[in-house]
Design brief:
By secondary structure, this protein is of the alpha/beta class. It contains eleven helices and twelve strands. Helices cover 32% and strands 23% of the residues. The structure holds adenosine-5'-triphosphate. One of its GO terms (molecular function) is ATP hydrolysis activity.
Length: 328
């Protein structure tokens, strides 16, 4: 593992047992993340993004189970830690933010109480200093009149404000890794843009690594350094943001790019990828994207493609990547 890698996920497999059989929600997922870098984890609903995030946090409850892989955080495999050690890491070094800020916020406590208690739980500082830190972090998250917000209860804040506070709480103890599971999806586009740029500034400033989970490629376009595209539990393409967005190799990634809202059509979705993601209980023998792919061949129907390197850290799970001729 290279010295600047904060996180290295190798061969992660997380399954859910259901009455109908075992669902491979995450299958053979591998990626690395350097210190201070932002990874955008992208894919349609049900592709395994959240389960990947929760697996890293080791927050998979039965009927789910991590069945294979390594999650190296600063070289230590999180899957081998005792639950107590993991709890310590979760409280101090790794944080998660959710689509619903109320997963983080306590509805019956004022914002200042929640923030001060968070600081005091993680450092030996005074209450006055903790309050100062809380106010400064709210300010850095673009919250005007932070003093007033500190005195509010969560229900007195707007949705965007609640999410800013929840993110500020995650940043308070300066974790080394934040996993953000669609925290801006429910917000309107303007607020989403503001929050993205504040989070980007703060993580750069603090040197925090960030995994940003989203179904929306346009969100990660301006935010991430690296992108991993998931489909049916697997990474189908990964690489630097410019490589993946400017030179997509997987037909699915190209489909996602083509379905982004066009600015001159007032946000109407164009060229949606036809068809639906496959049932994880009945995956085809070959490529999981086979049914929906315009470049499919008999090989794709019969064999599962591996994630092949294409130089510069760009990799694709496809027999006939974009740019190469499809055999007749
Ligand atoms: N508790 C569960 N029981 C059974 N299957 C589950 C459970 N949780 C997740 N799964 C399976 O894992 C798959 C991936 O779920 P996941 O939440 O990671 O998708 P996602 O890409 O984050 O989608 P979304 O954007 O909708 O959250 C689901 O399609 C489902 O089949």
């Amino acid at each position: 593992m290279s010295a600047d890698k904060l996180l290295e996920v190798r061969g992660l497999r997380t399954h859910f047992s259901t009455r109908a059989g075992a669902v491979a929600a995450v299958d053979e997922v591998s990626f690395g993340l350097e210190r201070g870098k932002i990874l955008g984890l992208v894919g349609e609903s049900g592709s395994g993004k959240s389960v990947t995030g929760f697996s890293i946090m080791r927050l998979i409850d039965p009927p789910g189970r991590i069945v294979a892989g390594e999650i190296l955080f600063k070289g230590r495999d999180l899957l081998r830690l005792r639950e107590k050690e993991m709890q310590h890491l979760r409280g101090n070094r790794i944080a998660m933010i959710f689509q619903d800020p109320m997963m983080t916020l306590n509805p019956v406590l004022r914002v200042d109480v929640q923030m001060i208690e968070t600081v005091l739980a993680h450092s030996n500082t005074s209450r006055a200093r903790a309050r100062e830190l809380a106010r400064d972090t709210l300010g850095a998250m673009g919250i005007s009149s932070p003093e007033e917000r500190l005195m509010a209860y969560p229900h007195q804040l707007s949705g965007g404000m609640r999410q800013r506070v929840a993110i500020a709480i995650a940043l308070l103890h300066r974790p080394e890794l934040i996993i953000a599971d669609e925290p801006t999806t429910a917000l309107d586009v303007t607020i989403q843009g503001q929050i993205l740029s504040e989070v980007q500034n703060l993580t750069r400033q603090y040197g925090t690594s960030l995994i940003w989970i989203t179904h929306d490629l346009s969100v990660v376009a301006g935010l991430a350094d690296e992108i991993a595209v998931m489909y049916a539990g697997r990474i189908v393409e990964q690489g630097g943001v410019d490589d993946v967005l400017d030179r997509p190799l997987h037909p699915y990634t190209l489909g996602l790019l083509n379905s982004l809202p066009s600015s001159n059509r007032h946000g109407r979705r164009l060229n949606q990828i036809p068809g639906m993601a496959p049932n994880l209980l009945a995956l085809p023998a070959g490529c999981a994207f086979f049914e929906r792919c315009t470049r499919r061949t008999v090989q794709c129907e019969q064999q599962r493609p591996a994630l092949d390197p294409h130089g510069n850290g760009h990799a694709v799970r496809c027999f006939h990547p974009i740019g190469q001729e499809v055999p007749a």
